[in-house]
Amino acid sequence: MEALFSLDLSYYLLVSLGVLIGIIFGAIPGMTATMAVAVCLPMTYALDLNHGLALLLGLYVGGISGGLVPAILINIPGTPSSITTTFDGYPMTLKGEPEKALKIGIVSSLVGGLFSAAVLYYFAPTLADWAIKFSYVEKFLIILFALTVIASLCTRLLVGIFSGVLGVWVSLFGVYDMAKGGNGELRIVPEVLSVFLENGFSLLPVLIGLFGLTVIFGEAEKGVHDEATTSVKLSKDKRFSWSVFKGQTINLLRSSTIGTFIGLLPGVGGSAASVLAYSQAKNFSDDPSKFGTGHPDGVIASESSNNGLTGGALIPLLSLGIPGDSTTAVLIGAFTLQGIQVGPLFIAEHTDVWNTMMLGLVVANLIMFAIMYYAIRHISKVIMIPKYLLYPGIMMMCVVGAYAINSGIMFDVWTLFLFGLIGWIGVKLGLEIAPFIIGFILGPSAEVYFVKSLESFGTLAIFFTKSPIALFLWGLIALSVGYSVYSTMKAKRASAKDTV
Amino acid sequence: MDTLAELLKVQIDFEQSHLLFPSIVEWVLGGLMLAIIVVHGPELLAQWRNGALRSCLAKWQVDKKRLFGCLALTLAYFIAMEPVGTLYPNSGIGFLLTSIVYGFALSRLFVHDINRRKWMLIALSSVLTPLFVWVVFAHLFRITLP
């Protein structure tokens, strides 16, 4: 409560601005919450951490929520996580109930977001307290576990692991940091580039390149077509009524829980959460045949789960220092800018920031609801903004973000371009961006934990014998790899059966 | 058991410690690449032989004009930004001027079925957007721009 009154008006204005920009990004197909956060990061350069986070949390919540608008109105998910919203949202539009579908989605998003914020508030400090006891060995194994979980959820396990390890390798460019106990010697980088890459690639140009430029190059390849070619109008005949939520408590709670706990798993993403929540809602329904025909239950399940992801993905970030999804990976950049390291000690050492973040998350959800619920008629017009006007502006924001990060180094702009190309070409070759980026972020820490463990104990056996937690983590690693191998084999058998 | 313990023993030379982890990562990457070739290689080879991969490549739809135009414009934008900026140092003018030209050219490249209204919109947006970004970041936030 104290935090609520200690913040000035600008804090709430920044959350609102973030939510509004986030909704716009989310509502335009092809642009995601991650892109919104990455592109708007330079706006936080001149802000302190609390105000910067206010903006970014607003962007995160707004970006995830905005995806429901095109999903319902034009059958194109604005963000990957709103894919299941199209299943029933668009049929509702066809039945003349677009406004009703949108408002059901907005209310469900609010419930999911607030539920996950509550789980985050109670769960993250407990997890952090537990993680404080971790030595370098367990910390290294946690990173290994995070990478295997992300990789195991990729289409091809080996390629997923390869992408993650490649991200780790790219993160090792430059000197072995003396501040972290390294010897200050340069590695991997050729002599000719040592001036530019002494400290390796900066995190933000890499992130902005992968999530900003890659999208624009991809769109250019497809010809930059605008999805909404006719104007979108919301009919007034079938209005929204709160009674639609009667008997939906279980669906709301179950879907929000699924979203929150899927968010806990590093790199899994909102689409997996919404697909799982949707299928569970269908399985538990008295009449599953209604799903896919414009059934409000489907929209409720999808939207409460994908907003449930927001708080869930922040749990591993704030308690372990491991991003829960690609958007929270970009949030790490905001903390890095302010010289704050997220991890088990974060909540204990920065209680004020933690409280302000929690407040920001709750306020962002409430503002998202207010903006979208009362201004949905105007918000829905966002999908009409032509991309040929948007993309140049986004490109300029990307340049500002990259150039200013180290107070004006052109090499960072070239890094932006390079990783934009790597992202665009890499995806075509099968490279998985989520494991790559998580590997890139966690690589330097993984190195320190690994080398220091060996320096202290002098044997590789320590990674198995250090503690029961280490063994437990190996169990989880084996489980995630085993699950992936099993599901791949199952899919292969199913496709073989189909061809027969 | 003792032999295994002996095998797992590692002594790290601090002078060379910067190479330990990258070397391991490189070996792992090499191993993974080999595993990918072994697991997915035959499947890809078969697809190449029966023409599936070639027809997939042939079907790859690319808007060459917009894609390569976008890449070339972006490259030119990045190259020009700093030299133009040196004409008016520490003011962000390099960014502003090159962004106006780039914004106009990129919008023109991306737009379909151009008409008078779209020309107006493009012209207006290519001046106002960079101007807004420049005022906000270079003047309001005092962020360094080229």
What's the topology here?
The complex is a heterodimer of chains A (500) and B (146).
Chain A: H1 2-6, H2 9-27, H3 33-40, H4 49-66, H5 68-73, H6 85-94, H7 98-132, H8 136-152, H9 157-171, E1 174-175, E2 186-187, H10 203-222, H11 249-264, H12 270-284, H13 296-320, H14 326-337, H15 346-349, H16 351-374, H17 376-379, H18 387-404, H19 410-428, H20 433-457, H21 462-465, H22 468-499
Antiparallel strand pairs in A: 1-2
Helix pairs in contact in A: 2-3, 2-4, 2-16, 3-4, 3-10, 3-14, 4-13, 4-14, 4-16, 6-7, 6-13, 7-11, 7-13, 7-16, 8-9, 8-20, 8-22, 9-20, 10-18, 10-19, 11-12, 11-13, 12-13, 18-19
Chain B: H1 2-8, H2 17-49, H3 52-59, H4 64-87, H5 93-110, H6 116-140
Describe the structure.
The complex is a heterodimer of chains A (500) and B (146). By secondary structure, chain A is mostly helical. Chain A has one domain. In chain A, 70% of the residues lie in helices and 1% in strands. Chain A has a two-stranded antiparallel sheet with strand order 1-2. The N and C termini of chain A lie far apart (64 Å). Chain B is an all-alpha fold and 146 residues long. Chain B has two domains: 2-58, no CATH class; 64-140, no CATH class. Chain B contains six helices and no strands. Chain B has helices at residues 2-8, 17-49, 52-59, 64-87, 93-110, 116-140. In chain B, helix 4 packs antiparallel against helix 5. The longest helix of chain B has 33 residues, at 17-49. Chain B is flat. The termini of chain B are far apart.
